[in-house]
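Structure in, sequence out. Go:
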């Protein structure tokens, strides 16, 4: 059973990201403040949910949250600042976009940087422990998957609609055959045998 609150503050925001381990596309972060009485029978860490369940949850979260926001950190910026900094930057941006300022921040994982003067806590596997982080993980994942399905139409040979940019065998074989695209992260090792790819 996921907990509704960590800090005791009523305006506690949960934040998470999706797409850190991908070879292509953005890192997408979300921040969600939920009301105290919020509940949903199958809200959980987005990785534990089917795509159908995540898609059903997204409008429910958006309609019932006190505030939510989603931000994209594009692949060029990921290359510039590295993927960990991209995750933290995305979470900061999402929090900044909230229409209600939070009193406390809970973060999935173990790395974060202070945001303004707002106290925070990092929670390993937080998306499987706290509702607001789980809700943020669902929003980040669904917005990112939707974007990857969109760019799949431009480059169908990489099958991003299915692999979402993760380093599957099929995705790597397509990079081997067709080379990288403008959506690939140039700072990532796109192929196991990669020494240097021509960009």
């Amino acid at each position: 059973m996921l907990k509704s609150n960590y800090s005791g503050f009523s305006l506690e925001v949960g934040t998470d990201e999706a797409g850190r381990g991908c070879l292509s596309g953005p890192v997408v972060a979300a921040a969600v403040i939920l009301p105290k009485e919020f509940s949903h029978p199958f809200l959980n860490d987005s990785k534990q949910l089917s795509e159908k369940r995540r898609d059903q949850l997204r409008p429910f979260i958006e309609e019932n949250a006190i505030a939510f926001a989603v931000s994209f950190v594009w692949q060029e910026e990921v290359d510039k600042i590295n993927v960990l900094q991209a995750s933290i930057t995305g979470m900061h941006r999402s929090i900044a976009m909230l229409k209600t300022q939070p009193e406390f921040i809970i973060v999935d994982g173990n790395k974060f940087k202070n945001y303004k003067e707002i106290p925070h806590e990092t929670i390993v596997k937080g998306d499987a422990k706290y509702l607001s982080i789980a809700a943020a993980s669902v929003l980040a994942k669904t917005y990112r998957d939707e974007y990857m399905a969109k760019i799949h139409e431009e480059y169908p040979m990489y099958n991003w609609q299915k692999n979402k940019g993760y380093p599957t065998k099929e995705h790597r074989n397509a990079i081997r055959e067709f080379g990288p695209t403008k959506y690939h992260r140039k700072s990532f090792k796109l192929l196991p045998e990669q020494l240097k790819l021509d960009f």
